[in-house]
Amino acid sequence: MTRVLVTGAGGQIGRETVDAFSGHEVIAADHGTLDVADRDAVLQAITSTAPDAVVHAGAWTAVDACEGDPDRAFQVNALGTRHVAEAARRVGAWLCYLSTDYVFDGTKPEPYVEWDAPNPVSVYGRTKLGGEYEITGPDATIVRTSWVCGLHGNNMVKTILRLAQEHEKLAFVDDQRGQPSFADDLAPMIRRLVIERRPGVFHVTNQGAVSWFEFARTVLDAAGLDPDRVRPISTADLDPPRPAPRPANSVLDNAALRLDGLPLLPHYREPLERLVRHLRS
Ligand SMILES: NC(=O)c1ccc[n+]([C@@H]2O[C@H](COP(=O)([O-])OP(=O)(O)OC[C@H]3O[C@@H](n4cnc5c(N)ncnc54)[C@H](OP(=O)(O)O)[C@@H]3O)[C@@H](O)[C@H]2O)c1
Q1: Which of 8, 42, 123, 165 lies in disulfide reach of 83, CB 3.0 to 4.6 Å?
Q2: 213 to each of 167, 172, 195, 235, 275, how far by Cα in Å?
Q3: Which of 112, 124, 133, 268 is an active site residue?
Q4: 3 state SS of 130
């Protein structure tokens, strides 16, 4: 049995990770319980409980808000990770850090592998890469994921379904591509990588690369609505423009999983249909 402490335990991935470790001893540290920007609090929480592993899912994930407040974004996402890494080292805990497709600039025409050079274009991406730089020891896994959706918290599936209730016609950008990832598929893989003590960077996403336009169509289709209600626009058409730039291509090749002979997560349609069924029941 592993004793695992989860930061950001109230978030989309945090909640599913807590569930995925059922059968183990889980210390669920949500933002209210543990602010990772507070070094003393992090050291106290982790040294007093001495977990075998820490899954660090806490982060300031509001990409556009981060753009307007870089200091806060670095404090939470980069410095906060320094605190968690320091505390994990002190107790000899395995560390799993959640990172993002937004560490890449999106100019590569093909999917990004784990060994491609990061070059974030947003403050959020820079701060999350800063967090990666804090993971210095060999006893750690970095899980980069993308376009996270799930039952808990706000995400694009919920936004698309809400907009479809409010408006007859919808518009989504067709020039940003990525791989939607569902928290209830991600969490069991996070558990596996932690339990098996797999070091290094792993891209972990559901399969199936789409633009937001294509994804919105699939969400409507899964909900039994007419996908033709969605029309494509370009990022330049967004009015007002969003404060933070996004990479045009943030498709993550799950190369490390694949080449290590580990199973890939299923195509995103499978968890999408499960989620839509759940939300509408
Ligand atoms: N969402 C995505 O599309 C996506 C994509 C790639 C990678 N990731 C990464 O995956 C991880 C989990 O993200 P998620 O999708 O689960 O996002 P989420 O639902 O926003 O969860 C993040 C959690 O972190 C908490 N948090 C914020 N500031 C904190 C602080 N100072 N100390 C401790 N906790 C704090 C938040 O609490 P409050 O809400 O109460 O502030 C929230 O519960 C993050 O590291 C994120 O960067 C997310």
Answers
A1: 42
A2: 16, 5, 37, 11, 19
A3: 124
A4: helix
Q: Is the CB–ligand 1 distance for residue 156 below 6 Å?
A: no
Pocket of ligand 1 contains residue 11 by CB under 6 Å:
yes
Is 102 in the active site?
no
Residue 225's nearest CA partner among 154, 152, 169, 156 is 169
Atom of ligand 1 nearest to the CA of 128: 47
Place of tokens 């001495």: 50
| Closest C-alpha among 254, 245, 270 to residue 173 | 245
Cβ–ligand 1 distance for 13 under 6 Å, the answer yes
Q: Hey, what are 41's tokens?
A: 């609090």
Please choose, from the candidates 193, 76, 107, the residue with its C-alpha nearest in 3D space to the C-alpha of residue 145: 193
Question: How do the pLDDT tens digits run along the chain, 281 residues long?
Answer: 689 999 999 999 999 999 999 999 999 999 999 999 999 999 999 999 999 999 999 999 999 999 999 999 999 999 999 999 999 999 999 999 999 999 999 999 999 999 999 999 999 999 999 999 999 888 999 999 999 999 998 899 999 999 999 999 999 999 999 999 999 999 999 999 999 999 999 999 999 999 999 999 999 999 999 999 999 999 999 989 999 999 999 999 999 999 999 999 999 999 999 999 999 88
Q: How far is the CA of 278 from the centre of ligand 1 (A)?
A: 22
For residue 103, CA distances in Å to 116, 217, 262 come to 10, 27, 24
Other residues' Cβ atoms within 10 Å of the Cβ of residue 92: 10
Is the Cβ–Cβ distance between 183 and 152 less than 8 Å?
yes
SS3 179: coil
Task: Quote the tokens at residue 23.
Answer: 């059968």
User: How far is 256 from 241, CA to CA, in rounded Å?
Assistant: 35
